[in-house]
């Protein structure tokens, strides 16, 4: 495992060393809690958004056990020559000191998004690929007007589509895409061009190529050293599907990536997507700010104290149980057959 920390390139070595060995920067997205959607009567419409995009695979975020060091090696080296050509070898990265290259079709299949027959077939080949600014039919202002209430005004990245949305379930979809595909968590305060593009496309029922978007988002994280490693669930799925790991003797402790959080009612409340009334979750009215001003002022001190207490209790629990430490050290691996 020590060799995983070493790189021939001084630039890559600097990027790897700059990332904290602790797991605060390293996350695995969110796991959908269906009963929470049922409480809100939102299951069918929420799933219809992801189905419209062809992004059902994002619902399969599990809990593959991977080390922080492996995540750092992967995201330090991941590169995608941004292209819409599915057959070009455009992706490269390193795992367990091994250099790996592939095209978008192979990445899509190895992640389990579809079978090889489907990946090379016309339906997947015809799915939209490319970043928003290169899409001829996408106009940010028109998309903003279509997705938000009339009082929202002109689109600006400093505005939040989740607050100004004309559909409360659309807010939840945006949060889910943020955590499980885009690797960001600031949609409550601002809306990126990509978020606007994905929501606009979902409303039109047009499928996007998830393999392209996965490669593109991993590339953005890898090439911006300040970004946290928030898409470790994608790496976990790749390792689980494709690599057979055997452990050698003489093992030393390794910090493991924390399990993914729940995409559930408590999360919806924390992100101001819903509020509780007599123990029952409700969506905010469209156009209403996520948190009424009076309640914010009155409760902020209590909320801060509760959050500090939760963090303290979590730290004590982790020290006591040692759940973040694995004994995996020097690792041998091979491709899974097929």
Q: In brief, what are we looking at here?
A:
This protein is of the alpha+beta class. The protein is 44% helix and 13% strand.
In words, what does this structure look like?
- By secondary structure, this protein is of the alpha+beta class.
- It has one domain.
- Helix content is 44%, strand content 13%.
- The protein is built from 15 helices and eleven strands.
- The protein has a three-stranded antiparallel sheet.
- The chain is globular and about 55 Å long.
Descriptors for this entry?
alpha+beta, two-stranded parallel ribbon, three-stranded antiparallel sheet, 11 strands, 338 residues
Strand and helix map with partners:
Layout lengths: L9 H9 L11 E3 L1 H6 L3 H11 L14 H10 L1 E2 L8 E7 L2 E6 H7 L5 H4 L2 H4 L14 H8 L13 H4 L3 H15 L10 H12 L5 H14 L8 H11 E5 L6 E2 L5 E3 L1 H6 L3 E4 L2 E4 L9 H29 L3 E2 L4 E5 L3
Widest sheet, order of strands: 2-3-4
Instruction: Compute the separation of the termini in Å.
Output: 26 Å
| Uncertain stretches | 288-306, 322-329
Order of helices and strands: HEHHHEEEHHHHHHHHHEEEHEEHEE
Strand content: 5-15%
The number of helical segments is 15
Radius of gyration: 21 Å
Average pLDDT figure: 80
């Amino acid at each position: 495992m020590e060799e995983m920390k070493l790189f021939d390139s001084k630039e890559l070595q600097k990027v790897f060393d700059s990332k904290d060995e602790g797991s605060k920067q390293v996350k695995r997205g969110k796991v959908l809690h269906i009963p929470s959607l049922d409480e809100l009567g939102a299951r069918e419409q929420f799933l219809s958004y992801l189905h419209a995009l062809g992004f059902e695979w994002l619902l399969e975020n599990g809990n593959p056990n991977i080390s922080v060091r492996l995540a750092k090696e992967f995201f330090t080296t991941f590169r995608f020559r941004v292209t819409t050509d599915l057959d070009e070898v455009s992706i490269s990265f390193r795992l367990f000191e091994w250099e790996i290259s592939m095209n978008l079709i192979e990445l899509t299949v190895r992640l389990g998004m579809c079978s090889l027959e489907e990946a090379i077939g016309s339906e997947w080949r015809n799915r939209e690929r490319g970043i928003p600014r290169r899409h001829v039919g996408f106009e940010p202002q028109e998309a903003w007007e279509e997705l938000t209430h009339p009082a929202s005004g002109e689109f600006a990245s400093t505005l939040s589509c989740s607050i100004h949305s004309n559909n409360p379930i659309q807010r939840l979809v945006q949060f889910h895409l943020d955590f499980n595909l885009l690797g960001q968590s600031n949609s409550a305060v601002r809306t990126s061009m990509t978020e606007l593009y994905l929501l606009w496309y979902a409303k039109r029922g047009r499928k996007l190529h998830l393999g392209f978007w996965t490669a593109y988002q991993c590339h953005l994280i890898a090439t911006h050293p300040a970004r946290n490693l928030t898409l470790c669930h994608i790496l976990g799925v790749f390792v689980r599907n494709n690599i057979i790991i055997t452990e050698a003797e003489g093992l030393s402790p390794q910090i493991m990536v924390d399990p993914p959080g729940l995409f559930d009612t408590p999360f919806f409340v924390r992100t101001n997507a819903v509020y509780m009334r007599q123990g029952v979750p409700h969506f905010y009215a469209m156009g209403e700010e996520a948190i009424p001003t009076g309640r914010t002022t009155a409760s902020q001190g209590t909320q801060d104290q509760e959050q500090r207490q939760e963090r303290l209790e979590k730290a004590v629990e982790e020290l006591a149980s040692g759940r973040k430490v694995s004994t995996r050290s020097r690792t041998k691996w091979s491709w899974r057959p097929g």
